[in-house]
């Protein structure tokens, strides 16, 4: 299966990963490319390069939970494939748990219903490694126990179960990706920032890096372009249908190692400050990518340090532009 000459829609397409995916999809030479985003997280500037590459890119400012409106867009654009990246992020689920949970599940249920009604042909859905919770066994395979520690994680596993049920009951054409700790340029900043952009921005502002907890909690970092390459492969390979698929580096890094590495790359001389642990923070993430290797020949291309250098460079340019 190829995306050439297809009509493609990306929900959350103005976000961090969504905008990178939109750019990569253009290389597949689609007939039509559509972005749906309500700009809760997404930013118009993220689509600058996509618009330069594909002048006919269409962007709808639309809440993707609204089934009637989404059905209208999908029919008007004659969409074949939906990549569903729209999401309410983990930090929001800690302050607005019901809203975050309900919205994330409704994003999935809306797409399930439209796929069941044959409004479009194929759904590629983004779940999250947060569905697993902290590692009980390592490396974390797709059959790892599902014990999410946050309402966000619970919403992702609930959505996965819903998608799987529609696959089994109605035969919708759906694949589910579970990415581990994605990082790179355009990652959410400010309120919804992850540890990498937060640390980079603190250092750029002349402040000390901060570690929440003891810094021995671990993560499995994947560079954003490796994820989008894998996403397209998942569409192409029918054997991925109906099951979750980890997209992970298969390497474990402590938060202390991560922040020390960023500080070294940025020549930061200020001491690291230790702060109280964050609510719902998982203790250990170490993903297995063996199934992805088997099904889509997944091979991460971007070395962790190289990816950090790209990310630091992007944030540094943006910081200088603003200040």
Write a structural description.
The mean pLDDT is 96. The chain has helices spanning 16-26, 48-53, 67-76, 90-95, 97-116, 151-170, 195-204, 224-236, 255-265, 290-296, 304-322; strands at residues 7-11, 32-37, 58-61, 81-84, 122-126, 173-179, 182-183, 210-212, 218-219, 222-223, 244-247, 253-254, 273-275. A seven-stranded parallel beta sheet has the order 3-2-1-4-5-6-11, sandwiched between helices. Helix content is 41%, strand content 15%. The protein is globular and about 55 Å long. The protein has a domain at 7-180 and 224-248 and 286-301: NAD(P)-binding Rossmann-like Domain (Rossmann fold, 3-Layer(aba) Sandwich), CATH 3.40.50.
Characteristics:
Rossmann fold, globular, 11 helices, 323 residues, 13 strands, alpha/beta, two-stranded parallel sheet, 41% helix
Structural class: alpha/beta
Strand ordering within the main sheet = 3-2-1-4-5-6-11
Number of strands: 13
Helix content: 40-55%
Number of helices: 11
Name the CATH architecture of the domain at 7-180 and 224-248 and 286-301. 3-Layer(aba) Sandwich
Uncertain residue segments: none
End-to-end C-alpha gap: 46 Å
Q: What is the ordering of alpha helices and beta strands? A: EHEHEHEHHEHEEHEEEHEEHEHH
Mean pLDDT: 96
β-sheet strand percentage = 15-25%
Biggest sheet layout: 7 strands, parallel
């Amino acid at each position: 299966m190829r995306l050439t000459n297809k009509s493609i829609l990306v929900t959350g397409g103005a976000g961090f990963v969504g905008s990178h995916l939109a750019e990569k999809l253009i290389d597949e030479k689609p007939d039509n490319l559509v972005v749906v985003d309500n700009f809760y997280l997404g930013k118009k500037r993220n689509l600058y390069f996509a618009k330069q590459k594909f002048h006919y890119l269409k962007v709808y400012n639309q809440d993707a939970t609204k089934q009637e409106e989404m059905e209208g867009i999908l029919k008007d654009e004659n969409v074949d494939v939906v990549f569903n990246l729209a999401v309410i992020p983990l930090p929001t689920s800690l302050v607005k748990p019901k809203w975050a949970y309900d919205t994330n599940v409704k994003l999935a249920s809306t797409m399930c219903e439209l796929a069941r009604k044959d409004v479009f042909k194929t759904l590629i859905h983004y779940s999250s490694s947060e569905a697993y919770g902290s590692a009980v066994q390592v490396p974390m395979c797709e059959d790892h126990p599902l014990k999410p520690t946050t309402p966000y994680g619970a919403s992702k596993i609930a959505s996965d179960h819903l998608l799987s049920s529609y696959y089994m009951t109605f035969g919708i054409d759906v694949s589910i990706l579970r990415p581990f700790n994605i990082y790179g340029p355009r990652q959410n900043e400010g309120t919804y920032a992850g540890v990498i952009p937060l640390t980079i921005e603190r250092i750029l502002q002349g402040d000390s890096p901060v570690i929440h907890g003891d810094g021995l909690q671990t993560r499995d970092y994947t560079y954003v372009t490796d994820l989008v390459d894998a996403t397209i492969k998942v569409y192409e390979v029918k054997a991925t249908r109906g099951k979750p698929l980890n997209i992970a580096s298969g390497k474990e890094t402590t938060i202390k190692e991560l922040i020390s590495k960023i500080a070294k790359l940025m020549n930061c001389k200020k001491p690291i400050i230790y702060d109280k642990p964050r609510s719902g923070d998982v203790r250990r993430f170490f993903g297995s990518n063996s199934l992805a290797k088997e099904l889509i020949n997944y091979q991460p291309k971007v070395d962790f340090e190289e990816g950090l250098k790209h990310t630091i460079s992007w944030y540094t340019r943006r910081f200088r532009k603003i200040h």
